[in-house]
Amino acid sequence: MTELTQEKVVEIMRGEGLAMLTCISHDGKLHSHPMAPQEVTDDADVRFFIGLQGEQADELRTNPEVNLAFTEAGSWLSVSGRAVFEEDRSKIDELWNDGVSKWFDGGKDDPNLGLIRVIGDSAQFWGQPGGKVASIAELVKSKVTGQRPEGGSGTTEL
Questions:
Q1: φ and ψ at residue 129, rounded to 5 degrees
Q2: Cys-Cys link to 156, which of 4, 10, 116, 151 (CB 3.0-4.6 A)?
Q3: How many domains are there within the chain?
């Protein structure tokens, strides 16, 4: 694998419509929640809408350390960082879309609607070069030959 760069991390995150956000519960256990990234900045920060009244928001207020997991056939990206609640109503207006309206009955003025930004500290990638088709072909080849699939991993600070 070529060197993992911040630009490559941003490209991968922008290409995914779903991430698993893992946070630490009040009893110290890990909780994962599917989240739809609303924005990925060039600095590899990711913004998500969140319900302010729920258990997930309470956990993030207590311990903002999180992990984001992105996956597609044959590739996995793990980003560790911290969640910060943002109060910027203009950013909510900018990122609002029909998909979000299904989760917040009061629209973008719903008092439960919040926005978090995950500020990445580091990222780790495991995957197959060549995308989905190459990944599937490599997995089939490994089944037939009994050999470990080719691929690589990389880590970078963000």
A1: -70, 145
A2: 4
A3: 1
Q: Residues with Cβ < 8 Å from 61, sequence gap 6 or more?
A: 85
How many Cα atoms are found within 13 Å in the side-chain-facing hemisphere of 44?
Answer: 24
- Asked, for residue 27, whether it belongs to a domain, the answer is yes
Q: Rounded to whole angstroms, how far apart are CA atoms 93 and 115?
A: 11
Mean pLDDT per 10-residue run, the chain (158 residues)?
Answer: 85 95 96 97 97 96 97 90 96 94 91 97 83 53 60 77
**pTM beyond cutoff 0.70:** yes
Q: For residue 44, is it within any domain?
A: yes
Strand 30-35, strand 152-157: pairing? unpaired
Helices first, then strands: H and E counts in the chain = 5, 8
Residue 1, in any domain of the structure: no
Nearest to 150 by CA among 124, 128, 125, 126: 128
Q: Is residue 58 part of a domain?
A: yes
Place of tokens 């599937």: 136
CATH code, domain carrying 40? 2.30.110.10
Domain that holds residue 11: 6-157
